[in-house]
Amino acid sequence: MAPHVAVIGAGAFGGWTALHLLRAGARVTLLDAWGPGNARASSGGETRVIRGIYGGNRRYVELAARSFALWWEHEARWQRRLYHRTGALWMFSGDDGYARSTLPLMREIGLEVAELAPSDAAKRFPQIDLAGVRSAFYEIEAGYLRARQACETVVEGFVAEGGEYRVLSVRPTPMSGGGMRRLALADGTTLEADRFVFACGPWLGQLFPDVIGARVTPTRQEVFFFGPPPGDTRFDDGHCPVWMDFGERFVYGIPGNDRRGFKVADDTRGPAIDPTTEERLPTPAAIARARELLARRFPALAGAPVLETRVCQYEQTPDGHFILDRHPAADNVWLAGGGSGHGFKMGPAVGELVAALVLGTGEPEPQFALNRLP
Ligand SMILES: Cc1cc2nc3c(=O)[nH]c(=O)nc-3n(C[C@H](O)[C@H](O)[C@H](O)COP(=O)(O)OP(=O)(O)OC[C@H]3O[C@@H](n4cnc5c(N)ncnc54)[C@H](O)[C@@H]3O)c2cc1C
User: What Rg do the C-alpha atoms of the chain give, in angstroms?
Assistant: First the structure.
């Protein structure tokens, strides 16, 4: 008989895991406290970068390539535009090992990338000032994904294919006999299942204080959307690529965003927060840093107004790698999270991987194992 699997969390990791489990023949109930891509979730907001340059890490390049394929396949299947192919320009003012070490892997795995002389990059993208940039790389297939909309679409697809989706907050119940038998639901009832996947993003540490705890730390991240001048299309997704600027800090941005403006974000990890209670208001210091970056790299936007802001959180592991592993005290409980600021694009491939683990057709990978973390 098909196992009944409860997946808790309908973000990038949980939604795709539920879909792959369903397609592999499981009966699946997907639960989320506030819904897919909600404003507190790490998968919320407009857009996320998808790219293949990954610091020379073969496994991530493979997962990115698999995810590209699954995003394309599902866009066509669902007739919904989720991926925008803008290309991505990587700019390095110092050590460019993060990109350079990935080039042979990308070519081997089939993701197109080119090194550009900074002077050529400046000619190609005249809206970007490359002063101080010593090396530049251009990823052809890279671009951005529509984040909240993609999460909603995955859940719609899951329900259309026969999955059960419920909006409810869930608590794990104590293990008995080496496993978990049921979930405690916020409406006072319980839900029994054969297997459980907790894909609760930044909440994983609160739900499993002993096993996860600070191994997943929610860090405060601020995002700004600046308004280009009227009629100026140089900063929209038809003319400007996704960009990454590795200088003293790693700052990146995304054009387009459904006309919300030109997105700028700083990848530096902020202070730890509680994802449920955090007031999501931006700080003047972060706005000032974003403006300084704009003035330097995108001079035409130096005086651009802030149109919108977001405060999100990374769900950060100590080494920045995901956690995709079995609960050490339960044979039938799996933990999927630790996206650490780069998990969204990988949702489709991570979901496939976690579904295989849960159904016993895949093996846990050391890079994503819980016991690698102190
Ligand atoms: C500002 C920012 C920029 C980013 N940029 C990128 C990028 O460019 N590219 C990229 O690939 N990644 C990026 N990331 C990272 C990526 O977005 C995350 O790693 C990914 O979305 C995490 O997905 P998740 O499913 O693990 O978590 P979440 O999206 O947080 O999903 C967890 C879900 O669990 C639910 N939940 C939690 N507790 C319970 C409970 N007790 N009961 C029921 N439901 C519960 C929540 O409501 C939530 O919907 C970025 C993240 C941020 C914040």
Answer: 21
Point out the ligand 1 atom lying closest to the alpha carbon of residue 13.
Answer: 25
Of the candidates 80, 100, 53, 210, which has an alpha carbon nearest to the alpha carbon of residue 150?
80
Q: Where are the beta strands (DSSP E) in the chain?
A: 4-8, 27-32, 47-50, 83-84, 88-92, 113-116, 135-139, 143-146, 164-167, 170-172, 182-185, 190-192, 195-198, 217-226, 242-246, 250-254, 262-266, 306-316, 323-326, 333-337
| Euclidean distance between CA atoms 89 and 106, whole angstroms | 15
Return the DSSP state at 2: P
pLDDT tens, position by position, 89-133: 999 999 999 999 999 999 999 999 999 999 999 999 999 999 999
Does ligand 1 lie within 6 Å of residue 169's CB atom?
yes
Q: Are 29 and 167 in contact (CB under 8 A)?
A: no
User: Which residues, in sequence order, are bridge partners of residue 6?
Assistant: 29, 196
Residue 291 beta carbon below 6 angstroms from any ligand 1 atom: no
Q: Kindly state the helix (H) or strand (E) to which residue 350 belongs, with its residue range.
A: helix 347-358
pLDDT of the residue at 97: 98
**What's this model's pTM, rounded to 2 decimal places?**
0.98
